[in-house]
Amino acid sequence: MSSVLSSEPAPRRWTADPVLTVEHVQMRFGGLVAVNDLSFEVGRGDITALIGPNGAGKTTVFNCITGFYKPTQGMLLLKHAKGDTFLLERMPDYRISAKARVARTFQNIRLFSGMTVLENLLVAQHNRLMLASGMTILGVLGLPSYKRAEKESIEAAKFWLEKTGLTARADDPAGDLPYGAQRRLEIARAMCTEPQLLCLDEPAAGLNPRESAELNTLLLDIRKMGTTSILLIEHDMSVVMEISDHVVVLEYGVKISDGTPSEVRNDPRVIAAYLGVDDEEVEKVEEQLDELAEGTTP
Amino acid sequence: MAAAKTTSGPGGSIAGAARDAILAGVVALGIFGPLVGLKTEQNMQNELVITTRWGLVAIIVGIVIAGRFLLTTTIWPAMTRNKMRDKPAATAGEVAFRARLARWFAPTGLVFLFIYPALMVYFLGFQGSLKWVDNFGIQILIYVMLGWGLNIVVGLAGLLDLGYVAFYAVGAYSYALLATHFGLSFWLLLPLAGTLAALWGIMLGFPVLRLRGDYLAIVTLAFGEIIRLVLINFRELTNGSAGISSIPKITFFGLYSFDLSAPNNFAKVFDLPMSSAYYKIFLYYLILLLALLTAFVTLRLRKLPVGRAWEALREDEIACRSLGINTTNTKLTAFALGAMFGGFAGSFFAARQGFVSPESFTFMESAVIVAIVVLGGMGSMIGVALAAVAMIGGTELLRELDFLKAVFGEGFDPDQFRMLIFGLAMVLVMIWKPRGFVSAREPTVFLNERKSISGSFVKEGHG
């Protein structure tokens, strides 16, 4: 909340009602500190981008949020629109998806390649269907209530197939889809879990410009629906600058910038991190920053 | 080999082939001459004497020469011709025929299974049918059921379990002990044996949840051995290696008994001539129904979320967790259900044999069941059934090959070579169909059209 009090240039919209609050998170692997004292907020309904050079710790942050790693220190607070709160660092990974409703995609696509596109989307609705099948027992007996639930799930899958343009390939194995379609299917599968927060790990990697533009439309569509906030890692700056409301920049596991896309683009530290500068220049920039900080704080 | 390649082209010369065959014969003579031709035996004075078996060596070398000649002159040229010729795309008629074959195979097979004992009795009489119903029918169906049970764990969930025979043993000993000590009926003990086996499945499941791949395989293998060693050494309970004998027979749902001395003996009640065939035929139908129950439950489960979760687990465990699937429970249900069917089969086995001992539950049994699942194509019900017929029926058939004695001499027993032939057959099938008899996967649900999925997309699981 101190950020609101300090004299930062623009009002921080995302601090008002964050869906996810990351506070002082540290992730240490033995002697290596991959993420250090990281704090940021993901605004509800926003598209938030997490960027940074290779090895900056972006995917590590994702793995902490989705429970694949347990952070060594810090707090990850997820707040639903209805007001339920979850401390993600205390939950096992499958409960983070099932209860806290955080879905994710992976940097190297992880589809169920031997199952059809439709089956992939039904697996994503596992927990709802499991309840409907009476933990399998009623389902084995062939009761109609399960049939009904399955039909609803297929309808939900159809909706996302339509959104991602995969309807024609619904009965093909996921492993047979072209690369771009696999990326879209992974997003559709994550959306089938009805997430509050969707974490996308480099969704535009390997896409051609047209597919990349389609991805932008899809993500903006999801934002328009208003129930799911998006946190994405991306290297493709056209995606980041075009669609995101809020950008967080990491370098060597430390946050170096946090703001709207235009602010971040003009941040000298970000430019230095991305383009690389002489050591002297870094010192100069840091000096300037220090001066700036001294000049603005009372 | 290089020489063979140059002479075996289309229309390769006969002389070249003959030269090549003779060369192979010389190599065979070099190998088998000392190995087979010379045999040392101890005589009465404890001295080693060499006996020679040159006749046998001559037969083997003859087979090698003839086989090599046949390969170079006919088989290899035919294979290259086949490869060179462009395969015409399957005509509409062929496609329709294949679809019809796939659709009718299961129902036809089922009808055949149901009339099989009747056919045998009709053609061979009650006494003559015994062997075919018991050694072939019941024996194969037990392995079909075990294969289908293990298919849940290995084929669907992708967890390599090399100790499946442990659950078979738990089922068998549950029935054997409870029936002999407390006189409980088979119909009560069948579900109980299944439950006990499922409990052991969960007990095995818990410690191995974190393991994958080779490590999982080794621990399950060890589990199978532990159960067998406990059965041997816990003499007070299991009577050790001597086993448990005079296990009561299964009754006809409590109405009729198949015990000769019982007053409600089946043959006596219906005034039929005494024969053990009635019991065997009854057992045949019982194991057929048990196997079909396994198939029915598995097919149902595949279309339920738990079944899809198993298959998803086989494809990618990390993705499963990211979708909120509790992989621990999913693995445990796979272990428990697979074990339960193993337990059912085990209690049936105990009742059928009337005798159980740890000898029946060696690692070899586990290996055979895993081989059936792998050979059949992981996850495919029909493939597993076909593989069980081929493996168990095939090894049983070896006992029937008496004519080989005429070739190899009176002392030749083809049954002793069953493991050798079995291994050779496995290698050949794996060259011909590396992903098993039926590699394609049938989707559990479809939107517009059901298309089977090529085996190349389906993963085998990684533990």
Radius of gyration of chain B: 26 Å
**CATH C-level class of the largest domain in chain A:** Alpha Beta
Q: Could you give me the name of the CATH homologous superfamily of the largest domain in chain A? A: P-loop containing nucleotide triphosphate hydrolases
CATH topology name of the largest domain in chain A? Rossmann fold
The helix/strand class of chain B is mainly alpha
What's the domain count of chain B? Answer: 2
In helices, the fraction of residues of chain B equals 55-70%
Structural account:
The complex is a heterodimer of chains A (298) and B (463). Chain A has 298 residues and is of the alpha/beta class. Chain A has three domains: 1-101 and 195-261, P-loop containing nucleotide triphosphate hydrolases (Rossmann fold); 111-193, no CATH class; 267-298, no CATH class. Chain A contains 13 helices and ten strands. In chain A, strand 7, helix 9 and strand 8 (229-233) form a beta-alpha-beta unit. The longest helix of chain A is centred in the middle third of the chain and has 21 residues, at 144-164. Chain A is globular, with a radius of gyration of 21 Å. Residues 1-7 of chain A have low confidence and may be disordered. In chain B, 69% of the residues lie in helices and 2% in strands. The longest helix of chain B is centred in the first third of the chain and has 65 residues, at 92-156. In chain B, helix 4 (92-156) packs across helix 13, helix 4 packs antiparallel against helix 14 and helix 4 crosses helix 15 (381-398). Chain B has 17 helices and two strands. In chain B, a hairpin with a 5-residue loop joins strand 1 (38-42) and strand 2. At the A-B interface, helix 3, helix 4, helix 5 and helix 7 of A face helix 10, helix 11 and helix 12 of B.
